[in-house]
Description:
Blueprint: H1 2-18, H2 23-35, E1 39-43, H3 46-60, E2 65-67, E3 81-86, H4 92-104, E4 108-113, H5 119-123, E5 126-129, H6 135-143, H7 149-168, H8 173-177
Parallel strand pairs: 1-2, 1-3, 3-4, 4-5
Amino acid sequence: MLIQSMIKYALEDMKKLIEHINDDDVNELIEIILTSNNIFTLGSGFSSYVASNFTAKLVRRGITSYAIGNVSTPAVEKEDCIIVFSKSGESQFVVNTINIAKEKINPKIISITSNPNSSSSKLSDLNIHMKKFGLNEEKNLLMNKVPYLFELSSELFIDVVIAIIYRRTEYNQTVSFGYDYSI
């Protein structure tokens, strides 16, 4: 019963986090992904796992993608895109990296964060914001023992983005993975 209860609370809280995501922003994100030469993902802490997972899913789709920070990652160029995952949008590593990229190369930068006024958001060309919980809501989340909701919600979000990319590029994933994206 504990597992079902925790999952129920997590799903309810994830719904609150992502209910304000704008469809036009998601469509723009997908268009940038499909028209950029290379996609680079960036995150710090648990968000770096989300970024790396998104990289892997893009690569599986045939989109050239790299996680910033890996030793085999090439240099970012102007025709590329950097997608940033950061709950606070204030991670020093993330802010410094996109600041340098913006000044020296000026690739497209997309920020996925729960802080619309963050340094990362201000440096980005496109911002996708997930709801930021207030202090009382944060306390309730901790009481529910479901931490890392930003990361869980981001994972769900990137799965939806990948599904839309599959549909737009007419790739039949049903054969490879058993999922039906024709909905």
